[in-house]
## 1
Amino acid sequence: MAIAIILYSLHGHITALAEAEKEGVELNGVQCDIFQVPETLDADTVKALGGKPSTYPIANREVLEKYDAFLLGVPTRFGSMPAQWSSFWDATSALWVKGSLHGKLAGVFICSSTGGGNESTIANVVTTLVHHGMIYVPLGYYNVMKKLSRMDQIRGGGPWGSGTIAGPENEREPTVIEKKIAREQGRKFGKVYWKTIH
């Protein structure tokens, strides 16, 4: 019994949040492993975009069948998921037909360059989860209200899921507050998962 974090992270922002999410999950004594969706860009394009190579194992259909619950790290592209995530989900039709993911839990955390599209990206991911019959677990405001409502600094995320804002040139790194919110999302998600298996 375990939770998988599956992500796509070109510049490392989602990766930083994923590590915080993992810390939160494991506070519940739950095993948590991190995977990445396959890259659809060639190596030269990734380099030209300033991409940071990731060393996580690649997620595939077997990972989706093996794990019981998922936290999904999805950067926003024009208010929706990027091509790498779309391609990943497009390859799951056999699982959809069999109902392999039905009833499994899923939460989402995001990154955008400006803060625009945060909630719409998660809503678009939830549409896919619904087609698979998965159960979306939002972050909500409980235990993070003060962090999510702070006005003294820029902050990504919201009640749909934790997040960060990378800046127009991906120059901004996730802040301590953003990582704390991600950690709390992982903790709460792990707690919900733990309750479902006991």
Note: The chain has a mean pLDDT of 94.
## 2
Amino acid sequence: MSESDPAPAWLVITTLDDPDAAERLAGHLVEAGRAACVHMLPPGRSIYQWQGRIEIDSEVTLLIKTSREAWPELRATLHDQHPYDTPEIIALPIEDGLPDYLDWIHECTR
């Protein structure tokens, strides 16, 4: 892809409460070609409302880089393999970036 036509790419965010499960899921996404890269942030504290109560939990955040074409399969995989009943699965379009990096995302997720 040229600089004027970068590969459409997405940043997908999800969280898990178990670092080992997060690493397994991240590895699966990359091996399956659903993601070019998954960056795991160290556990942080999440404060959220769930079923009428305020909850506080430790969670690992996954930053998943994927292509627009791979997004539907990635979303389905996350939904099927995520341990939460209602997982956070948020996709943000990457409007701009280093063209070579965007090309790499596209190549890894064909």
Note: Residues 15 and 53 are 19 Å apart (CA to CA).
## 3
Amino acid sequence: MKQIGDNAEIIAGRYLESHGLRLINRNYRCRFGEIDLIMQQGDIIVFIEVRMRSHLQFGGAAASITPSKQQKLIRTAEHFLQQHGNTACRFDAILMNKLDTDQIEWITNAFSA
């Protein structure tokens, strides 16, 4: 399962790079959690959660980014910004049902801090 998640993150990163974002960090970890992709779009740092769901049970990929998961992402992003300089940021989500760029749904500003 980890291999599928890693592949989904690689595909998502390439997809976002093709849309003008620049990769800063992949799988950023700290004591608060992990952020799949940290990218830059212009002057904005974009924290990206990649969700791969092959089944739509339990609401699919979007439903898996629970309020608890959002709080972990926010705390992890705050840690990153403290280490690398505070700047404008946003939280995006990449939702996938297959390992295929035609199956990507990119939600900008998926949630806010």
Note: The chain is about 35% helix and 40% strand.
